Amino acid sequence: PILIPKGERNPIAFNVPNSYISSNIQPFQDYLQIEAAQSTVYETIEIQPNPDIEGAIKKFGTLPKTVTFSTFIPKHSKLASELTEFFIAQNTTTRFFTTAAALRDNINPGLFVHAFSQAVIHRSDCLNVKLPPLYEVFPEKFFSSATLTNMKQTAMMLVNSGPSQRNLDKAFLDLESNPTASDREPEHKLAYFREDVGLNLHHWNWHLINPFSGPKEIVNKDRRGELFYYVHQQLLARYNFERLTNSMLFTEKISDFKAPIKEGYFPKLFTNSATKNWASRAPYSVLKDIDREADEVIFEIRELEEWRARIMDTIYKGRAQKPDGTTQELDAFEGIDILGDIVEPNVHGINLQYYNSFHNFLHLAIAWSHDPTGTHLETVSTIGETQTAMRDPVFYRIHGLINFMFQQHKDTLPSYTTSDLEFKKITLVNLEIVTDAKPNTFYTFWGKRQVDLSRGLDFFPRNPVSIQFKHLNHRNFSYYIKVNSDYSFPKKALIRIFLGPKFGDTGEELSFNRQRKLFFELDKFDVTLKKGYNTIIRKSIDSTVTVPFAQSAKTLEYNESTSNDPGRCGCGWPHHLLIPKGNQTGYPGVIFAMVSDYGSDIISQTIRIQAGECKTAASYCGVFNKKYPDKRAMGYPFDRPSSAKTLSAFIVPNMYTRMIRSHCSYPCECPAESPLCPQGVSLIRDG
Ligand code: CUO
Fold first, then answer.
1. What pLDDT score was predicted for residue 588?
2. Which pLDDT tens digit goes with each residue over 276-301?
3. Which are the catalytic amino acids?
4. 576 Cα: distance to centroid of ligand 1 (angstroms)
5. Mean pLDDT, all residues of the chain
6. Mean pLDDT throughout 674-678?
7. Ligand 1 centroid vs 143 CA: distance in angstroms?
């Protein structure tokens, strides 16, 4: 029997510990443990005999528990899609839960969590289900093996120590002591960004909500190919700005697949079997043909070249090949969507057989470069899994190439005309950034955060064990925007705000066509303009690009008020990374705002959101099961080439730019735990 709170609408929490992976601990439950989060009223449900279960265990149990699950591996993604479908097909909530409970301990944990989470997202009867944050379920994907071993030992010591010690209800460990590289590795400067917990949660969330395989109703979300392009273009732009503020050159796209990859990465993370570390990649590794029998993946690096050539040929011709020999135009509106689905690829894309799996197999070629034939029984490295891929510097080089390909397509499109950009009778008069210090300056600092990891660690009995880690943060600020309207009636408008670099990576002035590709979105929101001057004050925390850490951590938490829009709740850029670190003298950037016509830009659709329940972050995540709300191309107005040589030459009256500076308010080079650092880090406790 399992316990669930009485009543369909009570919030419930699933606890999916890794207990089965360690033999020397007392196992928790035989079945999925379902805890009441708010309700204390339980009912006991007998597991209904489900004739499909045995077959399902046999089928989904073919992937050994110790294998590192990766959606990039076709065999794994096929099993995951089938398991998601199987979960969704269970015709009552109870049957779904009990089926999941029966399967959980019998199948690969990565496969289980992926399919179960995806089923929860897509089942209309699971709107109230609360799942624990992924870092609690799989702490080994976020925190180093040394840290976790240390935490377990501390927790056990606490349990085994005397009564006075037992009164301590928490053990704290600081993550700072286990860096992934020394400062001799130049790329390590960016580890604070790449290894950020919120950033990696966001990437997992995004791919979980936007899978590339599975039934069409789940995969073919509105503009999903374009969103794949946009969300990765944006994270690359943010990463490149972050590099500038650390006095580093822009990330260099992978281009020659035969050339050694200069960046190495040693993740120091346990795999989910907790018996070994994720594979590392030595600097100057060379890609080799992949022939991994056990994973059922065989391809040559020559084929990767071939698939890239087919995609580039399609881009230059402006027409995609269809299986029947005809072609489809990559037009200015849907072309990028078709192309995104080709490159990733969406298994329901236009011609999977011809274009194959370029992006996914590029991830895999690098992820297996240390053991391309499986001879050493090594698993993928972190670049081979969406939960961990962003930690590796090579991720940004892969996506540098993918972005280059998309930009080659965008460069074939006509420039926006003045009438595409202007908003007649509307003038954007001023834009200021206001904080409690100097105007037009962002202030960043190291924040500290504590989260409880005890649910995902294998020890018994459990005491809370918190981990403390450092992350970039910034002071709250507001945009002060002044707009003049010559309409005699209230006019609804959309305000788009971007941030981009002023100079290139060698300090040069950027041409507009380079600069526009480096802008990233800070916010997009609607306002109603009265006749005459309007002063709009918008708080940074209200950004529709970001979600607060607690929300992204919860991953999949909905309630009835957001029933039209689940999924998005956990998805969004982590708010603490809204603003790049900057430097001590104030790294210069350009802030850009544009007012456009709400009536022509926004899709009219009903979205029920109750304020305060689930912050919206539609820019990078869309709106679940609805149309992407902005009719314009993602990245508008910077997504197309322009004849303007400079940003100021591009500006029309409904746009405004201003130079800003991003300033570390505490010495950013100073590790937060150092006694020599000025005080001032903020500490946030979660859970
Ligand atoms: Cu998100 Cu390559 O797509 O990781």
1. 96
2. 788 999 999 999 999 999 999 999 99
3. 344
4. 21
5. 83
6. 49
7. 21
**Are 644 and 650 in contact, with CB atoms under 8 Å apart?**
yes
Own/partner contacts of 334-339, CB < 8 Å, gap of 24 or more, are 335/409, 335/413, 336/225, 336/226, 336/229, 336/406, 336/409, 336/410, 336/633, 336/634, 337/223, 337/224, 337/225, 337/226, 338/225, 339/225, 339/229, 339/311, 339/314, 339/315, 339/405, 339/406, 339/409
Highest mean pLDDT among 166-180, 302-316, 468-482, 598-612: 302-316
Averaged over 102-110, what is the pLDDT? 85
Listing DSSP states for 67-89 in one string gives SPP-TTSHHHHHHHHHHHHHHHH
Q: Which CATH class is domain 2-126?
A: mainly alpha
Residues lining ligand 1, Cβ inside 6 A: 203, 207, 232, 359, 363, 386, 389, 399
Stated pTM of the model: 0.89
Vertex 155 angle, CA 153 and 158, to 5°: 110
Condensed to tens digits (0 to 9), the pLDDT of residues 606-636 reads: 655 444 456 668 899 888 778 899 999 999 9
Assigned CATH topology for domain 418-540+578-602+637-685: Immunoglobulin-like (2.60.40)
Show me where the domains of the chain are located.
2-126, 145-176, 180-410, 418-540+578-602+637-685
- Which ipTM was obtained for this model? 0.99
Of the candidates 409, 301, 405, which has an alpha carbon nearest to the alpha carbon of residue 362? 301
